[in-house]
Amino acid sequence: MIGRIFTGGCQCGAVRYRAEGTLGDPHICHCRMCQKAAGNYFLPLANIAREGFRITRGQPAWYRSSDLVRRGFCRDCGTPLFYDMPDASFLNIALGSLDDPDDVQPVYQSGVESRMFWFSHLPQLPEKETDDGSEAAAERHLIVLESNRQHPDYDTVHWPPEEDLS
């Protein structure tokens, strides 16, 4: 298969994948089932042909959310990874699990009957960066940097780099 290569995985690095080809039908789903599966207000998805997809580390856990759909996630950290209709020729990838989620821009929204009514007001909300410049934020940032166990946004030979410290 010829095409772009996309890599991604879960937050802890236990599950990694590689998708080669075109990520089709990129969209944001607001349906209540996707909200629950993502633990969020919506779930951004795009599909990849099965022949262009492979798991490169670990194995996802699966939850059958309906007779037609199963959802793949990391059993260790809980990251939502896949929306799968097993009889389809493609698999849907949760776009937030891509190493570079900015690579794929959704082109439409589905399940809008369940979209939060206040989404139209988001552009008017005040914005601030993660580090607000306060001493407390700087201290939190330092603690997170020193204790970060999140897998980096690229493939690694081994992860985690050290044994589990918990």
From TrEMBL:
MF annotations from Gene Ontology: carbon-sulfur lyase activity; metal ion binding
Residues covered by the CENP-V/GFA domain: 6-131
Signal sequence extent: none
Membrane keyword on record: no
Region ranges (Disordered): 147-166
Annotated Basic and acidic residues bias: 147-156
Listed InterPro entries: CENP-V/GFA, Mss4-like_sf
Assigned keywords, A-Z: Lyase, Metal-binding, Zinc
The protein's name: CENP-V/GFA domain-containing protein
